[in-house]
Design brief:
CATH class: Mainly Beta
Largest sheet: 5 strands, antiparallel
CATH superfamily: Jelly Rolls
Mean pLDDT: 93
Number of domains: 1
Distance between the termini: 40 Å
Low-confidence stretches: none
CATH architecture: Sandwich
Order of helices and strands: EEEEEEEEE
Helix content: under 10%
CATH topology: Jelly Rolls
Number of strands: 9
């Protein structure tokens, strides 16, 4: 079953960082991906997400509006909007120099 894709918009990129906004319609997801850099994600509004992980695990996560979390490089996942409303977040990837 196919689902809509989250829309990524590049905000800024230089030698040190890449910042992107991700817009998720209800049910939209990123698709499977592996993070190549450490990063910080900031929620613009409350995000009710479903995280699919390698091995078939799925967990629910609610990220409160205005909050942020960090993640290490190497994380593999598919992130899906589990809520009934569109959501957006900003991801800042920290490139190694």
């Amino acid at each position: 079953m196919s689902r809509p894709a989250a829309v990524a918009t590049l905000l800024v990129e230089d030698a040190r960082v890449r910042a992107s906004r991700f817009d998720f319609a209800p049910g939209a997801g990123t698709g499977w991906h592996v993070h190549g850099c450490d990063d910080v994600v900031m929620a613009r509004a409350e995000c009710r997400m479903r995280i699919a992980e390698p091995g078939g695990g799925v967990r629910g996560v609610t990220v409160p509006a205005g909050s942020a979390y960090s993640r290490k490089a190497g994380v593999a996942q598919d992130v899906i909007n589990a809520g009934a409303a569109p959501v957006a977040c900003v991801e800042v990837e920290l490139k190694e120099l």
